Amino acid sequence: MPSADGPVQLTGHRPPARQTVGVVLILHGGGEHGHHAVRPWSGPVLRMIPFAWAIRRRAKALRDDLGGELAVLRLRNTVYGWNGDDASPLRDARRALEELATAYPGQPVTLVGHSMGGRVALRLAADPRVTAIAALAPWIPEGEGVLGSPEQRFLLMHGHLDRVTDPRRTKAYAARLIERGVRAQWRPVPGEGHAMLRSARTWHREVAEFVVPQRDNPAKVTCE
Q: Which parts of 56-174 are beta strand (E)?
């Protein structure tokens, strides 16, 4: 069984701390169970690479608005599954946040998570360093608590045809956030399944626009 005590597996753009104005941590999917190691070439890991590229392109184009650079890192989990009370990917993500806090002290963190990674991101909403979360086709089990504050921004996207995770639970989660005064966007994607491939450009564009908003285009609060 892979050890959770090894180095955190982070890949991506690491600008110097003095030039950085924010951090983006991207979290891939997995399964409910599984203690085997996650390989760099596994599907859930590879699927998140275009999101990192899209965010980087937009951050570069809007660098003057941002006032600096964004660090954009992808986390590769130690093992494939959530694994019950072990919450394996949640432990990995918390370790990654600690490492990034050391490298980029005081910088706000945006989380982008797909499927199981979406569940991890939503669980980490209680971390004061996290200012924005994009949860993509998130795995939200029945009874999952809702975390979030009015100081944070949320984007929740889900394909109508997803048969792996439930878009109805994602919509309900967004509605509960809005009831709490949180700036949350619910974005259904018609004709899309769990892998986010049929409308890939839509997913990449909307996530990049959420992560790197223009000054004259603040996040909407909607749950239609």
A: 69-76, 109-114, 130-136, 153-159
